[in-house]
Structure formats: structure tokens, C-alpha cells
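Listing S7. Sequence submitted for prediction.
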Amino acid sequence: MLSIVADTHTHTIACNHAFSTLLENAVVAAKKGLKVIALTEHGPGLSGSPSPLYFQNMRVIPRYLHGVMILKGVEANILDYNGSLDLEDSLLSKLELVIASYHTPIMTPATMLEHTNGWMRIANNPHVDIIGHCGTPYFDFEYLPVIREFARTGKIVEINNNSTKERPGSDIPCRKIAELCAEHNVPVVVSSDAHFCEDVGRFDISLKILRDIGFPNELVLNADYDRFINAVSNVSGKNLTD
């Protein structure tokens, strides 16, 4: 069984629909043996999320809390089917990990063609590192051309542990996406998408999906510390050891 060393998607009380502090998340991460957590609050386009100033000031956060490396990032909200995001490029370029996601409070689901075009635009955004919970059935898209584009542009696909609970019907799309990622050599990360500290490091559903399809271990980036740090450093252009 894979041992995951990094949780790439976590939230804190900086978002008004999450319920733990960064320190609480770090304590739980340390207890569970994680080496890294990414702080990825929703961008300001989602009601109750931090302002751009929050992301500008992330430099004050220590690199390590309770022995756990903290990556300073964002879950940017996709604002339209042209691939617009809710933080300026100048700010995205300074963050260490950028996830891009569709959310129904911001986006009204449209046609498969529009969803597909949106992901193709996101695939070509150099500031986006990770594709967030794209298995949500509300924003169904043409998997094959999009996964091929993720492969071509070097994106990382998230297998989100929270999706089957919060986005019903995500299990089959997530499985199909993972199968295509394996076929086209697209790396993935499993993530908790934790909104409460005890969920940090919870990957059981995501790992079962990967285990059931025989997903290649070497493509699960956050199953190995060096592989994860090197891959995220390469895709983000940041030196994560500073």
C-alpha cells in the first residue's frame, strides 16, 4: 500500500466554511507522519474566502510547523470557460502551488464542450500546477483530449478524497480520469481537501480508486518525498527547499 508523504490540498479558518487553524492542521499532519502540507485556501472569487492581500502576505508563514513543511498556495477558482482565474498572474507567479478548480457557487454548469474548452485553457496556463477535483460530474468534459493536453503541458491531476462525499457521482469520473492519466503518463497527487484538521492526511477513497485500477506507483507524486519536491519544484518553477 502506498504511503503518502504530502497533503496537497488543505483549508483553514481563513475560509469561512473551514473549521481549523493552520497550526491545528500541522499538528495533525505531524501525528500522521506527513512531511508536507499545502495551504491552499480558495481564491477571493468564492464568498467568504481571503482577499488577495492574504496571499500576498503568505511570506510570514514559517517554512516548517511542528516539523511539517508548509507550501504556500491557493485553490484558484475558475471564473469562466475561457480559463480566467480569480487571482492576478503576478500574484499566482509568487505562490508555490496553484490548484485550479471549478466550483458551482461561482460557475453555472454548461455544456460538455464549454467545460472541455475551459480545461484546455487551464491546461495552457503556465501558473497552474495542479488540476483540482476535475472528476465532479457537474462539469463533465471530454476526458481524452483534455488528459492528453494535461500530459502535453505537464499538469498534475488531483485525485480528491473529498469528492465522492461532497460531489456525489464523482467516483466513476475519477476512476476514468485516473485510468487515462495512467495511459498517458500524467502524474497525479492524492489530496484530502480537508476543511477540518482531523481530515488532513485522509486519502482512503483516492487510494482505493488508484489501487483498484492498478495505477502505477511511480506516477503518484506524493508517495515519495524527493519525487514530490522535485516534481512540484519543476512544475511551479520554485525552489521548495528554501
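Caption to Listing S7: primary sequence and predicted C-alpha cells for the chain studied. Residues 6-236 form a domain with the TIM Barrel fold (CATH 3.20.20.140). The CA atoms of residues 43 and 87 lie 7 Å apart.
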